[in-house]
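agent> fetching stored inputs for the pyridoxal-5'-phosphate docking request
agent> found them:
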Amino acid sequence: MPHRSVYLDHAATTPCDARVVDAMLPWLREHFGNPASRGHAWGREAEDAVQRARAQVAALVGAEPSEIVWTSGATESDNLALKGAAHARCAQGRHLVTVKTEHKAVLDTMHALGRQGFEVTSLDVPASGLLDPERLAGALRADTTLVSVMLVNNEIGVVQDIAAIGALCRARGILLHVDAAQASGKVAIDLATLPVDLMSLTAHKSYGPKGIGALYVRRKPRVRLEPQMHGGGHERGLRSGTLATHQCVGMGEAFRIAGEEMHAEVERVRALQRRLLAGLATLGQVDINGDLERRVPHNVNASFAGVDAERLTSALEGIALSTASACASSSGEPSHVLRAIGCSDERAHSSLRLSIGRHTTAQDIDTVLERLQGALAVPGAPPPPHGPARPGPTRHTALSA
Ligand SMILES: *Cc1c(COP(=O)(O)O)cnc(C)c1O
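agent> prediction call returned; pasting tokens
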């Protein structure tokens, strides 16, 4: 009997909600106008759709529609926020601060700024993965212009205390950028009260299409950015390029649904996470990475003592999850996030990330637990799902969020 397939990799990407696809199609099929062509009906109806979607994105995070700049995703938003703010404020200082557990879209951008004459401080975190605001306060200097701290971590799911971090920055006139790619639809965000100046968002981690995201840019107090894409002056000159109406509509609909259903969905996911954690606890020595309280219920990052995660996943064919130990390159380096929270290389290489989503069922969780139990039955040598063991290289399932 073939194994049932289960998708537990929602932190890498989510399926596009059927309602989102339905909302997008007319803007591909019939209403093809350029939203910048305000001189005729085709353009104006596209512009109206883009503005409605902008308001839907803004509403989920408590922003004004005029504070939302469309981008291609969180990677571009991170680049625009960090390079844009660092360069716009370089007369005031060239010191930037971030955290070692950030996404590569932030860390690599910071690294690039480091090569352009900026000085970057990357803060350590304890085993919980949570940044201590006191540690941040100790790193801030007179020439610090920008701090970047993510809201929800993509590998271990912990939720940073952005309110406290933002208050520290605001008191010193330092901008705070927050990568919220993993947070939309999982935790409530209210930028009307949260002291955050720039926030990166993306559609495809929240049941919208890939290739569309947004950067929130605060207007009061006003944040100035150096544009990174020059051209037709779209998006108030901050990001030129013809807007993809269907993509904007898709992100708007995905964020509208997230706003309406988040509360019930989080409770459902929490029950599934409890089921998963209870099952994992019966499988031998399994340790959960990252703080157990301040986390989204969608993420479980578990280390299986003495087990090679790559071999474990190859015995779990048909189940989509990520090995937290692999990195996107083939270097075989352990995850920078697990390393930053103090995991040994061995522990990092024995870790799996399971991420629960909108369509996950209790049956899915039970299936994964059964398969894990079977695979762990022979320590260090999980049997293949079908037929005899095949020699050859281990399949490489890199963490791709
Ligand atoms: C997925 C992700 C990104 C990159 O987002 P894209 O929209 O795929 O470019 C950035 N930051 C975090 C925390 C992510 O999880």
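agent> quick read of the result: Residues 245-281 form the longest helix (37 residues).
agent> awaiting further instructions
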